[in-house]
Amino acid sequence: MHFPTWPKAALDGLLSRVPLRPLAVVAIAAFLAEARLSSGADLSQAVVREKYNVVTLAPNRASEAQPASTGSVIRDEGVVRTGTDSRAGIEFADLSLARLGANSIFSFDAKARTMNTTQGAVLFSKPTNSGAIKIQSGAISGAITGSTGFISTVALEGVGPAGRIPSKGKGTTTLVGMLEGKFNGGARWTDGAGREHTNSFRLGPGEMVVARPDGPPRLAQFDIPRFLRTSPLVKGFKGPLPNEASIARAVAEFEADDRAGFIDRSNVLVSTRPRNLALVGRVVPPDVAAQLRQSGNDGFLPGIKGVIRAQLIWNTSADLDLYLTLPNGQVVSFGNVSVTFNNGQAVARLDRDNNGQTINFPPNIRVENIVINGIPLSGLYRFMVNNFNSPNGTDSFTLRVLYNGHLQVFTSTVAAGQNSAPLVVQVPVRP
């Protein structure tokens, strides 16, 4: 699982705008080719196991669709469509499942071992003892072996709260999330100058990628237990999901992270089709989550300690800055890294000015710390994040502040040239 995010770019606390590492197109092609050659995955035909309201079948994209019934056989290149308030559950010969939400279009190619979602939302689940298959939708393609996840594809113009980026053209926004197992793939997009890019990504349980054709993909996390409790892709069907033991382990890990304070329960919708997707939880890049779990020190990455300790973390090349305004109005920042106050009884110090080019913890974690030692002045201490400069427009960050055993965690985003909301610590008057 994973949680917080970092400063200098963000989608209003929705999605961490975390640039994913580029991967040469040839490398992705080679990987997917290997996945296609894996033996054991049988997508030669499927059977409609569950049907609710309007479900139609067509032998291929060019053929006329006919009403489907429970038990209908879908052969290679067959196309399944669902109507409004409709669902369909499909089972393949190797016991792989595809569950279609409302207004969805789904097809499969047996020779290429590919499941394709053109529109709507689909939950896919594949037994661990069958070969790899390819999942394709919109700008995303990737491979799974034994895994359970979901895809949602909506029109670019209808992205709503998940995107917050003005559309520069037609196309779709695609979300892929994993309940258990792994998804290895790539997302294709074109920049404003017409240059084509492919970004690689790898998803594990509780991780989700959001991809669109006019910008780099974003990585986010979602609440696995809530998805299982609320999504029609789960609750709207009678039969159990395969790989139940793996799903249970993923839920247990998520709940352990939640108890440890690594999960923020402020949820947001990730689709304009909320019936097709559950809510997500705190956005946190997985590399940072792993570092924080291992630190064992209230979630702080290693650094200087103090009576009051504040730590800013982010994982983009943005130049984010941590500021502290003391009760007497003095400011600690990159321009004034050390301040002595309270009649010389206390010192507040910034450990470094990280302009985004220094990676403090591999593979891409940036950190700034401000600590106060001595006898702090009573009053309010206001910590704030400034996005001094960013190539991303907005960036995600996590700010943690510890005082007198009380930990505050603030995960949000901040646009280039803007300040975040403050995180405030109150030091009481000494008796």
What features would you describe in this structure?
The model is unreliable at 1-40, 157-169 and 265-296 (pLDDT under 50). The chain has helices at 25-37, 224-230, 232-235, 244-259, 286-295; strands at 45-52, 55-58, 66-67, 73-75, 79-82, 87-92, 97-100, 105-109, 114-126, 133-137, 140-144, 147-155, 172-180, 183-190, 196-203, 207-212, 215-221, 308-314, 319-325, 331-332, 338-341, 346-350, 366-374, 379-389, 394-403, 406-415, 423-427. The strands form 3 sheets. It has a 17-stranded mixed sheet that branches. A 6-stranded antiparallel sheet has the order 21-22-23-18-25-26, with no helix packed on it. The protein has a 4-stranded antiparallel sheet with strand order 20-19-24-27, with no helix packed on it. It is built from 5 helices and 27 strands. 12% of the residues lie in helices and 41% in strands.
CATH architecture of the largest domain: Sandwich
Low-confidence stretches: 1-40, 157-169, 265-296
What is the CATH C level class of the largest domain, in words? Mainly Beta
Average per-residue pLDDT, rounded, comes to 77
**How many angstroms does the end-to-end distance come to?**
44 Å
Strand segment count = 27
Shape descriptor: elongated
The largest β sheet comes out as:
17 strands, mixed
**Secondary-structure class:** mainly beta
Number of helices: 5
Strand content: 35-45%
Residue share in helix = 10-25%
CATH topology (fold) name of the largest domain: Jelly Rolls
Domains, number: 2
Gyration radius from CA atoms, angstroms: 24 Å
